[in-house]
Every structure is written in structure tokens, then in C-alpha cells.
């Protein structure tokens, strides 16, 4: 089991908004140990909890739910199908960029969204 690269940042943002990891766990209705296990990569973080953390952090939950579903099935035929089905929506929001197969990487950027989208358009064209 491989922990998605973006998960620590998502947990950090949600925990900061919630107050700390314990408060985040309460809001998610999971144990503090579950949050710790997600951080350490000992257990996968369910797509539903990733969407809820995104919402807590003020991020678009639907994008994060789609991203989590794609990541959950990464490297499989189903993952490729999910990426094709959901990838355009992810790219349209500027939230993720596809690389190989069903993988997508979250973009955390202090730049305005227009700068981020322009960057990806340049990447696609090059």
C-alpha cells in the first residue's frame, strides 16, 4: 500500500482548520489513531474521509473525492477507466494533473488559479 503524496498536506490543512489532529478526528467521527495511521501510511484513508477533510479545509470536496477514487485504484484497469472518466473534471478545476496511467498529483500553489491553469496549459502544449 502506497500513501498518496498529497495526503499529508490535506491532513495538515484540515487539522489546522479543525484545531489539531484530535479535533479533526472528532469532526470525521474516526479515532485519533486513524488519522495517525493515515499520516504514517499504515492504513489507507477512505475517499469519503478525504472529501470531508477537504471540506473542512475549505477545498472542493467533490474534486477531492474524485481524486481519492482515482488514487485508490491507481495502476489498475479500473483506475485507468476512472481517470478517463474523472480526469477531465479534475483538470478543469486546476486541482490535479495526470501523469502516467491513473495517477494524478495534487497541486498546492500560493499562486492565483489563473497562473496555475496557465502553467498546465503550457505543460500540455510542450
Question: How is this structure best summarized?
Answer:
Helix content is 64%, strand content 5%. The protein is built from seven helices and two strands, in the order H-H-H-H-H-H-E-E-H.
Descriptive account of the structure:
With 126 residues, the chain is mostly helical. The chain has one domain (7-125). Helices cover 64% and strands 5% of the residues. It is built from 7 helices and 2 strands. A two-stranded antiparallel sheet has the order 1-2. α2 packs across α3 (32-40), α4 (47-56) runs antiparallel to α5 (61-72) and α5 packs antiparallel against α6 (77-93). The longest helix has 17 residues, at 77-93. The termini are far apart. Residues 95-123 have low confidence and may be disordered.
Provide the structure class: mainly alpha
Q: What integer is the average pLDDT?
A: 77
The total count of strands amounts to: 2
Largest sheet: 2 strands, antiparallel
Overall radius of gyration: 15 Å
Q: What fraction, in percent, of the residue positions are helical?
A: 55-70%
What share of residues are in beta strands? under 5%
Write the layout of secondary structure elements.
Blueprint: H1 7-18, H2 21-28, H3 32-40, H4 47-56, H5 61-72, H6 77-93, E1 96-98, E2 104-106, H7 113-125
Antiparallel strand pairs: 1-2
Amino acid at each position: 500500500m502506497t500513501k498518496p503524496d498529497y495526503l499529508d498536506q490535506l491532513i495538515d490543512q484540515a487539522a489546522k482548520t479543525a484545531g489539531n489532529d484530535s479535533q479533526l478526528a472528532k469532526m470525521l467521527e474516526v479515532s485519533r489513531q486513524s488519522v495517525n495511521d493515515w499520516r504514517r501510511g499504515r492504513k489507507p484513508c477512505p475517499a469519503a474521509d478525504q472529501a470531508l477533510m477537504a471540506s473542512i479545509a475549505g477545498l472542493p470536496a467533490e474534486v477531492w473525492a474524485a481524486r481519492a477514487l482515482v488514487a485508490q485504484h491507481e495502476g489498475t484497469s479500473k483506475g485507468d477507466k476512472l481517470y478517463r472518466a474523472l480526469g477531465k473534471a479534475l483538470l478543469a478545476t486546476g486541482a490535479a494533473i495526470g501523469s502516467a496511467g491513473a495517477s494524478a498529483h495534487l497541486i498546492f500553489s500560493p499562486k492565483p488559479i489563473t497562473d496555475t491553469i496557465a502553467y498546465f496549459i503550457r505543460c500540455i502544449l510542450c
